[in-house]
Amino acid sequence: MSDLESFRAEVRTFLEKETPGAIRGASFSSDQAYWGGRKAELPHPESKRYCEIMASRGYTAPTWPKEYGGGGLSAAEAKVLDQELARLKLPIPLTGFGLAMIGPTLLQFGTEAQKQEHIPKIVRGEIRWCQGYSEPGAGSDLAAVATSARIEGEELVLNGQKIWTSYGDKSDWMFALVRTDANVKKQQGITFVLFDMAQPGVEVRPIRLISGASPFCETFLTDARAKQSNIIAGMGNGWTVAKALLGHERNMIGSVFGSGGSRTSANAAKTNRNPLVDLAREHVGDEAGRIADPVVRDRVTQIGMDHRAFMLTIQRNADNLKAGHKPGPESSIFKIYGTELNQRREELMLSIRGPRALGWEGTDNGPFAPEDLAQTRTWLRSRGNTIEGGTSEVQLNIIAKRVLDLPD
Amino acid sequence: MQLTLNDEQRILAGTATSFAKGSGGVARMRALRDGGGKQAYDKNVLAQMADLGFTSIAFEERDGGLGLGLASLVIVTEALGRVLAPEPLIPSLALAAQAVALGGSDALRARVLGPALAGTSVLALAQSERGSRYDLSAVALKAERSQDGFVLGGDKIHVWGGFGADGYIVSARTSGKPREPKGITLFYVPADAPGVSAVAEVRVDAQNAASVRFANVAVQAADMIGAEGEGLPILERATERATVALCGEMLGGMSEAFERTVTYLKERKQFGVLIGTFQALKHRAAKLYVEIELARSAVMAAARALDEQTEDASALVSLAKARVSDAYCLVANEAVQMHGGIGMTDEHEIGFFMKRARAAELTFGDSAYHRDRYAKLQGY
Description:
The structure holds 2 protein chains of 2 kinds. By secondary structure, chain A is of the alpha+beta class.
């Protein structure tokens, strides 16, 4: 038996024996996943216990180093773990910005002490993290952050306002960009710092969005305190850290639309079925095996083909990396194309549903089915896809500068 | 399916690129256009391509080919597409000769494919007729039984590479009516057979094409390709292979037009600055880049799918042709626009890419045709 196969046998025995049977078959979607933290919400009664069991082996962060609580697995072993999870219909045990964003950043830039302090808690799902980047005056121009940080003894004292803090109201710690020097080039006076949000100087208010949901918050910092020992990569080096972290963030956003980078989307990338076909058949009818309305049929086909070409491009990128080639510039297109494709898909789904897509609220037997109502909300939510994590315009700037080398 | 180039393919790409550059570039195509000859390509250059193995790449070893498949052929057509090389590599080798390789008897393959692969003989597929557009079953040209074979009568148009060709693969109706799938039979007809006459078509992209008349042309039964009345599947398979080869050419053409445009944005000054500093142009250029990357993935996938005979190969062919058709036309339109007035002149080469983009778009089906085909193949 090869090493990989003996690993598989071992993982299979562990998962079969140790994981709670009740959680098998639970949803894989990221909305309904377990995010951990002090105020953890349980999508399933066994979520917390399941997370802890998996974390005991580092399987919540399979490829992270063992010395910080990770699984220490190779990419091949992590794939086996994925396959075994899928075999038992086990959900992903833990998700969140700790695993997706600050964890990888700490592994890259953190000191030994910082890694020892924070990473095991991420792996175990004990601390939920949020991102303090954008400010009212620093959106696309992120380097314009103005939240001030003044040194006082062993601490930094923070004053200012952060905005679009995803799930800020549910989080325990924030990683933030703050201004420690206002007299140098704007990128050079930024510091990347971590702090506990459970303190009097931190106030979080949810923002109601056009979709009616409030996933984002405003965070007000009034003499909030951060330990200097939680500055990452030193004073004034925050911009370098921020850019690296944005790379992790774009990978995560891209993966939502199936970029293959995440564990959840690996399976979705393989199916070529176009779900819009069934929706169109249901709403506009079918004539001799074809979607009855030829215009709708063509639009559905266009989206399906665009999706397929996008998936193939993601595969090409992955194949190139596997073959040992350097990451090609093709990866720079994932964020912009994936998000715009998703918006076009959402808009087409509105068109297909027709007047049934008008609903905002309704009861079970009303004119709007629950999936119609959900559609309205997901369409509105999708409008943010091309704004968050670097607008489409910023992505185009990046391609023009870094790939095409066009002049400033 | 691996969407990467292996070492052998990387070497081939280098060979094809240096050949294309060394062959005289786009200027050679202009010279042929302006030379007054109706042939519009250079037989010596075709022979050089044969010497390098380009003509043999996608044929099996039993036919004297290299057995490297379409994944390698598209690398060559891409390099040639960058210089708009007018030699009939696609119509003769990827289309007409493929029909012979797919359906011809051992004797016919031995007789016809050898000279074609050697580049000494040019074949052309005589398929389109008035009103047929992209429908391969819209065949009216008649083939009637005679004592020792068949007699062909009818007209073919838009025969790519057909002027001055040495032989034609002709789709003819042995039974049934136009647009019926059964009853189409393929024949090999030497160009010098009595009753065959070709008139050059003058095309916007200056490529070789002909209208070919078959007036009571006697064909021996041994020159039939495949079974009588069963020619359509052979036509479809050969057309799919040629479509992918053309997609490679189009990928090369759009890449070249795009790179020339980006270079121009870095050289041309207006209002005292390089026009490449304008965000309106930067964003449009970046969007073209995205489209080209997606097109490349689709073309690589289609070529490999046909090579590996995967279940969804036909759908991937349509995916690729739809994508490159839209992308090449978009890139070429934008290339001319961003070049400004100079882009509208015949003297500048960028306009050639726009002409070729449209001609290639309308060959083997445009994007609307291939979206419809894709949907049908997916069962809706």
